Amino acid sequence: MVRSKWRGHTIIEVGDHWEYEDTGELVIDNPRRDCGKCLKPSPPGTDHDPCLGTLPGVLNACCGHGTREDSYIHFENGLVIRGFAVSEVKHVS
C-alpha cells in the first residue's frame, strides 16, 4: 500500500485514486479538508493555508501541516523558502 500526506492527513493509494486513510473519503472529493495539524479550515473563498492565512508579498505558501519538509513560501519576487516549522518563523517589522 502506498501512503502519502495531503494537508497534514495520511492518504493511501487505492487503485487509481487517493483516499484519506482515517475516513476513506476520496481526496478529490474534499481536497480543501481542514489542516491535519491545527484543524483550521481555509479562509472562506480561498485556497490559502489555514495556518498561515493571507501573507502580503506572497504568491502561495504552505505550513507543511506538521511535515517540515513540505513547508514552503513562494514570494512575489520569485524567492522560495522551504523546510521550516511555523513556530520558527519570526515576524520582522
Would you give an account of this structure?
There is one protein chain. The model has no long low-confidence stretch (mean pLDDT 83). This protein is globular. It has 2 domains: 1-33, no CATH class; 37-93, no CATH class. The chain is mainly beta and 93 residues long. It has a 3-stranded antiparallel sheet, with no helix packed on it. Strands 4-5-6 form a 3-stranded antiparallel sheet, with no helix packed on it. β1 and β2 form a beta hairpin. It is built from no helices and 6 strands.
Q: What value does the average pLDDT take?
A: 83
Helix content bin: under 10%
Q: Stretches where pLDDT falls below 50 for ≥5 residues?
A: none
Major beta sheet summary: 3 strands, antiparallel
Termini separation comes to: 47 Å
Shape: globular
- What's the order of the H and E elements? EEEEEE
